[in-house]
Amino acid sequence: MDSIITLEPVFKNMLWGGRKLETEFGYDIPEGQVGECWAISAHPNGDCTIASGAYAGHTLSWLWAEHRELFGNAEGDRFPLLIKIIDAADDLSIQVHPDDAYAAEHEDGSLGKKECWYVLSAEPGGTIIVGQRARSREEFAQMVEAGRWDELVYEIPVHAGDFFQIDAGTVHAIKGGTVILETQQSSDITYRVYDFDRKQADGSLRELHLDKALDVINYGAELPASGEVAASEGPLTTLEQNECYTVVRATVAGELAVPVSYPFTCVSVIEGEGTLCGEPVRKGSNLLALAACRELVFAGDMQVIISHP
Questions:
Q1: Backbone angles phi, psi at 150, to 5 degrees
Q2: Catalytic positions, written as ranges
């Protein structure tokens, strides 16, 4: 078995999606408005198929269940991370995600959803919603009832290269014209607070989940000043490190060797092209290094996001 595998991404048509996954990343995507590429996923709602090596044709969830030794015998009843590319041609709903405890109790044993965003592109003057100003459940409900969205949500400018950590309980919305790489827990639980009264193709409105949202919002969360990433001296910049994942940006200019010692490592090329351990990669390549891979050897001119549990 190769120590690095490639996967067939799963694409999701979304009301707010566009075509940049095709035009900017070269993916062969379905017709219509495609909002999400589930690039590395073993979630039942989008289980990637292994594209290369001895286990080609099997799903990632199968590999996790049947060959845990390839993941260093990591514990857990499911592959814990999910890597997405999101093309928001229009605004996503204003939403919030639960933590592990709430999701386990109220969502049939699901994981919660802690996530983070690396902004790949954003239109000039674009903004993003990260946080809200209500200090209590009652105040939040009153502001929603009155439609005081401009006062309620916290909206800040967004630029390519920004990074945002979105903890469970954080009200958020990616806005139109923004493309992000998302690293998250393997969960598909979203509580919509507001969807701009948009109608789906059949004329219906998408379901809202205000009661559950009010349960899980963190009313004391601090608001971010910006998404700006502090400059680093070396080629590696740690963007986030928490109990669920570590996310690192690597800038490759020539050759770069990155030691790894994790059950698995997710690798996404977000700009440029080159090789990874001798195999050609380019913008849009997503690979999964298994436990046997002890070093990621890059060559070329590219930017890469690396994540692991």
A1: -60, -35
A2: 192
